[in-house]
Amino acid sequence: MSGLLGAALTAYVWSAHGAKPGVLLLLGLALGIALFHSRFGFTSAWRQLVAVGNGTGLRAHTLLLGTTATLFALLIGTKTGLFGSVPAPSGGPLGFGLLIGSFVFAVGMQLGGACASGTLFAVGSGQTSIVLTLGGFIGGATLAAWQFDLWKDLPSLEPVVMADHIGWFGSWAVTILVLAAIVLVSRRVQARRNPPPVGAVAPARRAPRSGKPRVSEGRRTR
Q: How far is it, in rounded angstroms, from Cα 13 to Cα 23?
């Protein structure tokens, strides 16, 4: 049913507003489906690494970022775009506004139990308990946009785009090397802390030799 609804909505947007909004909607639906079925998010991966030393989720993040960096480097480096657009990089200032905002976002992400992507696919899947997190996310973003001039005027460094200094291949190579280092560190942390397996099935216990029935998880076994 949801697939038919998505197809109908995409067809309507495509016919009423053109190919570009239709493609964007189709891309958004595809990302939502992928996030929902993979249960992919950022909060749980960092929590697993810090709490028990499991770096599996963090390594999935590096794979995502490495793939994205590769595609971005190819598209922006070759100036290949759709619908007449020319992809171009954009850099933002590095300053107190970024540090404060990222810290507040991280705190809210842990308290809310989900990041932005996790919140959106959870609400889309019908989890009403996460609606409060979505409301806080929207409220915080609106407040930050309202006070944007305040954040913009805080001390900061000038934006740095690595491609302007070492080229697109060089910036891509640096990104991949950093991600590879993160993978190695997460593997060492996981090997040292030896976290419990995720989703492991408890081994079956043998029945007592007396042959008397015993109750295990609500069922009688022999």
A: 9
| 8 A C-beta contact, residue 25 and residue 9 | yes
Which of 146, 175, 145, 178 is closest to 162 using CA atoms? Answer: 175
Q: Is 211 left (phi over 0), alpha (psi -120 to 50) or beta?
A: left
* N-terminal to C-terminal alpha carbon distance within the chain: 44
Q: Two tokens at 11?
A: 């067809």
Q: Tell me, what DSSP letter sits at residue 22?
A: H
Which pair of structure tokens corresponds to residue 70? 């590769």
Q: Do 57 and 49 form a contact (C-beta atoms < 8 A)? A: yes
Residues paired with residue 215 on neighbouring β-strands, in sequence order: 220
For the stretch 138-168, pLDDT in tens is 888 898 888 888 887 888 888 888 888 888 8
3-class secondary structure, 192: helix
- Beta-carbon contacts of residue 140 (< 8 Å; ≥ 6 apart): 104, 105, 108
pLDDT in tens, 61-119: 899 899 999 998 888 888 887 787 888 888 888 888 888 888 888 888 878 777 777 78
Q: Are strands 214-216 and 94-95 parallel, antiparallel or unpaired?
A: unpaired
Q: Give the span between the Cα atoms of 9 and 64, in whole angstroms.
A: 28
Beta partners for 221?
A: 214
Chain segment 5-50, per-residue pLDDT in tens: 778 888 888 888 888 888 888 888 888 787 777 777 677 777 788 8
Which tokens go with 116? 């932005």
